Every structure is written in structure tokens, then in C-alpha cells.
């Protein structure tokens, strides 16, 4: 569980979070990154407007129509 840093200064809170993160071992940082990725996938899948992502995580993002560009 990540600790909560209480402060009114946003820069101080960000510095404290950075210090906390870099004090972790590489294995802990990797586990945290995996959890963050899983949470992001969960949030993406919860939105019905988003296309489904295959379970293997591989998907080529293609557009059905060309991207409109402004003329020069």
C-alpha cells in the first residue's frame, strides 16, 4: 500500500513520492508498474466506448477512415 503524504505544497508532495519510489527495490518498482498497468487496462475496459483489447494485449491501432489534415 502506498503511503499518503499530507502537504499543501504540490511540489513537496511530488518530491516525497519520487523519494518513496526510488527507495524501493527494482523488484518492488516492477511490481508497482505491473499493478499500475493492470489498473489502467481495467479502467480502459470499463468504458463501453472503448474497443475491446485482446487478452494477449497485442492490437494494431488502425483507423477506418483517413485522419483529416488541414490543407496548407
Give short descriptive properties of this protein.
47% helix; 72 residues; mainly alpha
Structure description:
Helix content is 47%, strand content 0%. The protein has a domain of 36 residues. It is built from two helices and no strands. The chain is mostly helical and 72 residues long.
What order do the helices and strands come in, and which of them pair?
Blueprint lengths: L9 H13 L3 H21 L26
Order of helices and strands: HH
Query: How helix-rich are the residues, as a percent range?
Result: 40-55%
Global shape: extended
Number of helices: 2
Strand content is under 5%
- Major sheet size, sense and barrel closure: none
N- to C-terminal distance: 52 Å
Q: Radius of gyration over alpha carbons?
A: 19 Å
The secondary-structure class comes to mainly alpha
A few lines on this structure:
By secondary structure, this protein is mainly alpha-helical.
Amino acid at each position: 500500500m502506498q503511503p499518503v503524504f499530507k502537504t499543501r505544497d504540490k511540489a513537496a508532495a511530488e518530491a516525497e513520492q519520487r523519494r518513496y519510489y526510488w527507495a524501493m527495490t527494482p523488484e518492488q518498482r516492477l511490481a508497482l508498474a505491473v499493478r499500475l498497468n493492470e489498473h489502467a487496462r481495467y479502467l480502459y475496459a470499463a468504458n463501453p466506448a472503448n474497443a475491446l483489447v485482446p487478452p494477449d494485449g497485442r492490437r494494431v491501432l488502425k483507423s477506418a477512415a483517413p485522419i483529416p489534415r488541414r490543407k496548407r
